[in-house]
Amino acid sequence: MSANVPTDICFSFSGLIKRGGETGSHKDGWGIAFYEGKGYRSFHDPIASADSEVAKFVQQYSIKSTQVICHIRKANRGRVCLENTHPFSRELWGKIWSYAHNGQLKGIKKKSLSGYLPVGTTDSEYAFCWILSQLREKFPTKPSKAQRKKAIEGLCREISTHGIFNMLMSDSENLYTYCHTKLSWLTRQAPFEKAQLLDADLSVDFKKETSDNDVVTVIATQPLTSNEQWSKMTAGEFSVFRLGERVFTSVA
To answer: Which residue among 34, 112, 224, 251 is least packed, with the fewest CB closer than 10 Å?
Structure first.
């Protein structure tokens, strides 16, 4: 999620966690990361989100944030354990970066790392460490937004040659996305309407929960609601979201 005001993710999260072992097969752990200014908090659990007491806690605890990344895992590389649950996080240029990935990447671990090492054994975390290694090598100090965007796009395109790479990554201000096979997005802004989840018998009237100036974008592998118009990203689409708006997009 990317939003222009601190927003809670409880509604979307209530649908997503059902896909972790109840309505979907991604039952090998889950995690969620929230940004509050420069601050960062996260929750992880190596069991199915549909059965997780930690997930129930997060669902009931309204944490407001302008940037959120959540991931439910289906293990392909790396055993099911806490250190292999996404989103992963590292510091770069004085900010906490977080990252989640769906897909498999062949040969990614042949790439050399500098400055960042994975804690777990997934190809996903290794790719994240490689992205940050490359950024830090190229830019020892924080580059401009344009330089940063161009560099990240190029690195995403290079990683995508190793397999399936559907990615979300945040630096607390920008949400970077890369679609290889599946990503969809939806922007909610005035006039707000009622939304119905696909995976749970839950709806919300956003007119009662928002102001006319609110802008909130949700990105997911598959649409989370049944009565809203989601936009499907195309293969090779790299986009940047900031304060709820899509501020850049490019398709190879």
So the answer is: 112
